[in-house]
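Protocol step 4 of 6.
Sequence for Glucose-6-phosphate 1-epimerase (Myriangium duriaei CBS 260.36) entered exactly as in the expression construct, tag removed. Do not edit the line below.
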Amino acid sequence: MVDRSNKPSAISPAAGGPQPTVTAEGGKVTARLSTGESVEVILYGATVTSWKNANGHENLWVSSAAKLDGSKAIRGGIPVVFPVFGPPPKDHATSALPQHGFARISHWEYLGKSSSESAPVSKSGDSAVRLDFGLTPGNVSAEMRKAWPYEFALQYSVTLGRDGLQTVLEVRNPGTQKWDFQMLTHTYFHTPDISKTAVRGLAGVRYADKVLDMTEHYSQGNELKFEGQVDRVYKSLQQNTTSIVVDDKPAYDVVRDNLTDTVVWNPWKEGAQAIGDFEPKDGYKNMVCVEAGCVSGWQSLEGNDGFEAGQVLKSYL
Ligand SMILES: O=P(O)(O)OC[C@H]1O[C@H](O)[C@H](O)[C@@H](O)[C@@H]1O
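Step 5 output, structure tokens:
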């Protein structure tokens, strides 16, 4: 088990003030703060498909051809990757699973809401709202169970505050047999113009470049710009904040908690053409994935052990 230095504070019922509204219907949970911020989570994959600021700005990119009916992983928003990132290695216990595992293609249960005035995303005096989702073997298809027959329990918490959006994944092994996993939140950020967009906070870090046959490199400058396809796994980052800037101005921050790695992905023109549910085809100009996770190695969980990690997303748009 990996210890967590920075656990989010306990959620306590909010006192007074206008309360957030939460609706759960049609396989979707929507929460809105009295100040106007909102979030929408589809139970299929517990995928966050919308996160808006009080001014109405949508922070996430979702393909106009994304399947929202449970027939395919949702192309956009924040898919949850578990228990393997990317194509599973051939000689590993996850080898029979599809790319990025089963969490994003399973129907999660909505466990309920709670309010908090002490979450990392709440401004003082304002309440944040937390939505909890659960996934256990009973929610997973027989095919996926056969491919990965371990006992597990996942709890995914999405907390909306005026200061941002927090996602936390708690992974538990209630069985007796030890297993390994990787996890990642595959956030698709919306950007007005990829040619003016850069990612900062990745300097001096070792990364595997998937575009260059997984070869290893060291990142030089502190800024990654986009002039073609980018698909990199940055490993063991020291600094816990990765920032997206547009025209040199802050757009988003991703603050990792107990997650060592960050994947940066933009499929560019050729990649978008090759992905059936990526629409519009020039949508790559309006998105960038900055994905916080632990994917460069494996986390091991003994029986009755647990692991918890997450991210806080901030928007300045
Ligand atoms: O098409 P998907 O299975 O959703 O994967 C989309 C992308 O996810 C990650 O960012 C990987 O690093 C990419 O290599 C992959 O193309």
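Step 6, annotate. The pocket of 6-O-phosphono-alpha-D-glucopyranose is lined by residues 73, 86, 99-100, 210, 231, 263, 265, 275, 289, 291 (CB under 6 Å).
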